[in-house]
Amino acid sequence: MSEERHSETPELRGLYRHVNISVRTLDIIIVAGIAAMIILVVWSASGGGYSVRFDSRGGSDVPAQSVRYGEAVAEPAPPERNGYSFGGWYVDEAYSVPWDFQTNRVEGDLTLFARWIPDSQS
């Protein structure tokens, strides 16, 4: 078994035989890499957060918002659409889950859908 290890050792040495780097330089590279990862994580967490888009479904444009995890979405002015009354913002296109701007919180990218009620039905 020890003879098998000796036969593998030259192959492993061959993999790194052309690398000429000091331990100090390698330490600096490792520390710089760790620092870069920490900066990236902090920047991501403190950055703009998640995108909240408003699909007005044929109504006037509503600008998207950038909201951090766990924060509330600022309620935009209701969009307008000729012949319809605005019926609120919903999480799904089937209008089964309304979005409550007072209690709901952002947990990821989000699109809210405008519900429209024809003026003849309001």
Question: How would you describe this structure to a colleague?
Answer:
With 122 residues, the protein is an alpha+beta fold. It has two domains: 45 residues; 72 residues, Immunoglobulin-like (Sandwich). It has two helices and four strands; from the N terminus they run ααββββ. The chain is rod-shaped, with a radius of gyration of 28 Å.
| The level-1 CATH class of the largest domain | Mainly Beta
Note the total helix count.
2
Average per-residue pLDDT, rounded, comes to: 86
| Derived structural class | alpha+beta
- Low-confidence regions: none
Task: From the 3D structure, determine the CATH topology of the largest domain.
Answer: Immunoglobulin-like
Helix coverage percent: 25-40%
Summarize the structure.
The protein is an alpha+beta fold and 122 residues long.
How is this fold's topology laid out?
Layout: H1 2-16, H2 23-46, E1 50-55, E2 65-67, E3 84-90, E4 110-118
Parallel strand pairs: 1-4
Antiparallel strand pairs: 1-2, 3-4
Sum up the structure in keywords.
122 residues; alpha+beta; Immunoglobulin-like; 2 domains; 4-stranded mixed beta sheet; rod-shaped
